[in-house]
Design brief:
two-stranded antiparallel sheet; 11 helices; 4 strands
């Protein structure tokens, strides 16, 4: 592989890894608090992309306003999913919430087919023209969109870390992830904190969906399934329940996926397989993930 192609693959891998990280954080935050895998999370990505698309095409909003509205709409959807689907099951067995999560995923996909239609739509028409430009970096031709996506992803991850570690609501999120009953006794409104966690994770998923749609400019009701699944693998790889682990797992998975295809182009058709192989290996040899905490089993 020449240096030019390596540089292009490096930027592509970092961008893809950042998108996986954005989506994986939603999985890991919800799991850290409720010990629940929210399988509807990938479909929030899809809804976010559709909201941005119709904000421009149907509502005639400027692109940047449509993006903000789509991210806020995704946050509201995440909050609504918690209130409608998961809050009534707080005291139920975890298997009930898991089945509900799968059902909510199917519902959102079917809802999108009915409302938005099953025919894929081109996102390229609403992508700003300046993002489509190509710049030359050390001989590599890289779209401005790649730099924009990477910078936006890093900024959103930094904002998330600030919220979680520097604000009162972030302190409350970390507290209920450790001990919900004790946090409730200290006067915290548990349901509101959980709802905020869903909204925050869904906002990141919505942003990830918009960036994903700009990089792979075609949206359809099932577009969130594979990115959501890979982001879940990234969260498990990094250590489910760990925000830093989700970030690390996302970047590593994205880099590996792009670099393997870059070095071995004949394996391009099997790029999705690598993620599942990683999942199997991590579950076999380090089930808590790279940054996961050690589990102590009481006998």
């Amino acid at each position: 592989m020449s240096g030019t192609i390596f540089l292009q693959n490096l930027f592509n891998g970092l961008t893809l890894g950042g998108l996986y990280a954005l989506i994986a954080i939603g999985y890991t935050m919800v799991y850290g608090i409720l010990r629940l895998i929210n399988f509807a999370h990938g479909d929030v990505l899809m809804i976010g992309a559709y909201l941005a698309f119709y904000g421009v095409t149907l509502m005639s909003m400027p692109w940047y306003i449509s993006v903000v509205v789509a991210i806020l709409g995704s946050a509201g959807l995440g909050f609504l999913i918690d209130r409608v689907a998961y809050k009534p099951l707080r005291e139920s067995p975890r298997i009930s919430a898991l089945i509900t999560a799968i059902g909510m995923s199917f519902f959102l996909e079917s809802f999108a087919v009915v409302v938005f239609g099953g025919i894929p739509k081109s996102f390229l028409s609403i992508t700003p023209r300046f993002l489509k430009k190509v710049v030359v970096v050390f001989g590599a031709r890289i779209q401005v969109l790649t730099f924009f996506a990477l910078a936006t992803t890093v900024a959103l991850l930094a904002l998330l870390l600030w919220i979680v570690y520097k604000t009162k609501i972030g302190m409350a999120m970390r507290a209920i992830a450790t001990d919900i009953p004790t946090t409730a006794l200290m006067g915290a409104n548990i349901d509101n904190i959980i709802g905020f966690t869903f909204a925050l994770g869904s906002a990141l998923a919505g942003a990830g969906g918009i960036i994903w749609a700009m990089r792979y400019p075609q949206i359809n009701p099932y577009m969130g399934f594979m990115p959501g699944l890979k982001a879940f693998i990234a969260a498990v790889f990094g250590g489910i329940g760990s925000i830093q682990g989700a970030m690390l797992g996302g970047f590593i998975l994205g880099m590996m996926e792009i670099m393997i295809v870059g070095f071995f182009p004949q394996l391009a058709g099997y790029r999705d397989v690598f993620a599942f192989v990683i999942l199997i290996l991590i579950l076999m040899f380090k089930p808590t993930g790279i940054m996961g905490k050690k589990l102590t089993v009481k006998v």
